[in-house]
Amino acid sequence: MKKVKRFFAAVISLVLLCPAAAVSAADKEVIIGGMPFGLTMYTSGVIVIDVDDSQNSPAKAAGIKENDIITKANGTEISTNEDIKAIISASQGEDIELSLTRGKSPISLSIIPRKNDDGEYEVGMWIRDSAAGLGTVTYFDESSYSFGALGHGVFDRDTGMLLPLKSGKMVTAAVTSATKAQKGIAGGLNGFMTDEVIGEISVNNGFGVFGRYLCKPDGMRVACADNDEIETGEAQIYCTVDSDGVKPYDIMIEKVDADDDTGQNMVIKVTDEELLEKTGGIVQGMSGSPIVQNGKLVGAVTHVFVNSPKTGFGIAVGNMLESYEKYGGYPES
Q1: Which one, of 93, 130, 116, 109, lies nearest residue 59 by Cα?
Q2: How many C-beta neighbours within 10 Å does residue 157 have?
């Protein structure tokens, strides 16, 4: 029996990277997604998400800051929270030499652990080495066995920092229900993910998560639209919001700016009465839902306007394809 982990869709906001130039996608054919998936991502090093700012805090005294990435301790590579906790526990209060990355700059610091009331050594900082949650697949590319999803990056929920990806897994998932969005209150998809691995995540950037899937998916094959083919007017999004599976729902593309280098290439509005009844509009977990217009994949849903949940942003598929090529490269077949 597959192990099951239950999740509520996490808030995922756009993280901007360097702009990706528009790519001609007109000759590419893909299988559109719309199905949920579970992701588990492990960071390269561990991220400092908070620092104790009290007077006797070792981390504060050492100059450690939120968003620092700890890569080594006493010369040992750090991959998990347990790695650094073990070194702190074994320190006996002696200095620990840390190698950090702050922004793009490498830094070396020395920290002196303190003994707490329980007799254990601690340094006064909170760290994270992984993230997990639900999202929606945008497309599968049969020519390279690659996939694109979310339409925006995965970031740390506490610091807002784009997670520096070391490795990641794509697993099967199911959506069971939706919490309806209301003005000022974000809704979300509710469901679970299993331990059945169906893909490997190799890229996490401002335009999506990308990688290679392990088994050939079923679905509708469509051509990708060039950025200049996207137009205002009627379109559909394909998504899963309950146990009925992937279904198309009507939207209007109200504004197009395919050259916007933030990935906010479309303003879309849900017009489908069935979807509005089920979700109230765009909700967390729908990020990555493919947008189809005139029989072509034009992009993916990325964000909701919290004060107007019928409306949100979409990214052009050409920018997703170019982003993967620029920052990660397509895996060899």
Answers
A1: 109
A2: 16
Contact call for residues 248 and 238 (beta carbons, < 8 A): yes
**Of residues 50, 250, 257, 272, which has the active-site annotation?**
272
Q: What is the pLDDT of residues 299-328, one digit of tens each?
A: 999 999 988 999 999 999 999 988 777 655
Largest CA distance in the chain: 67
Distances from the Cα of 90 to the Cα of 59, 72, 73, 84, angstroms = 17, 15, 12, 10
Per-residue pLDDT tens digits for 25-69: 656 899 999 999 999 988 888 999 999 988 889 999 999 999 999
Which listed residue (99, 146, 202, 287) is catalytic? 287
Residue 6: other Cβ atoms inside 10 A: 10
**Which residues are CB-neighbours of 55 under 8 A, at least 6 positions away?**
none
| Residue 262 tokens, joined | 């933030």
Cα distance between residue 96 and residue 101, in whole Å: 16
Q: What is the DSSP letter of 155?
A: B
- Measure the CA–CA gap between 310 and 305, rounded to whole angstroms: 8
Query: In terms of C-beta density within 10 A (0-12 exposed, 13-18 middle, 19 or more buried), how is residue 165 classed?
Result: buried
Q: Is residue 303 among the annotated active site residues? A: no
pLDDT at residue 15 tops 70: no
The whole-model pTM stands at 0.81
Active-site residue (options: 68, 141, 152, 156): 152
Averaged pLDDT of the chain: 86
- Look at the block and give the residue holding tokens 């003005």: 183
Q: Is 79 a catalytic residue?
A: no
Closest of 101, 107, 108 to residue 68, by C-alpha: 101
User: What distance, in Å, lies between the first and last C-alpha atoms of the chain?
Assistant: 31
Cβ(287)–Cβ(277) below 8 Å: no
CB 33 within 8 A of CB 221: no
Q: Is 228 a catalytic residue?
A: no
